[in-house]
User: What shape does this take?
Amino acid sequence: QVQLVESGGGLVQAGGSLRLSCAASGRTFNTYIMSWFRQAPGKEREFVATINWSFGSTYHADSVKGRFTISRDSAKNTVSLQMNSLKPEDTAVYYCAARVVTALQYTYWGQGTQVTVSS
Assistant: This one.
């Protein structure tokens, strides 16, 4: 059974940094795309960043480009999101998600971790 468990959220001042981690278990993820999404109160879920587990290629949303960096550690089966220069508008619940490379929708989701950025 696949499990995705996020950690690392918290309260930080604007301009600060946080590092989120997603521990993935239950299978090998060589054929998977791993991504981070976020959802702020009253808003729709928003794509943040994605990584191809096998090749390590990444893509970041324009809203976080240059500030956030997604990465993966194959040995530890974790996906991380390094968040720098945080802004109050980055406040949201952040979710880790996984899908097979050929799938259109994400199959697996974590429970989410809260990130709050104070001004």
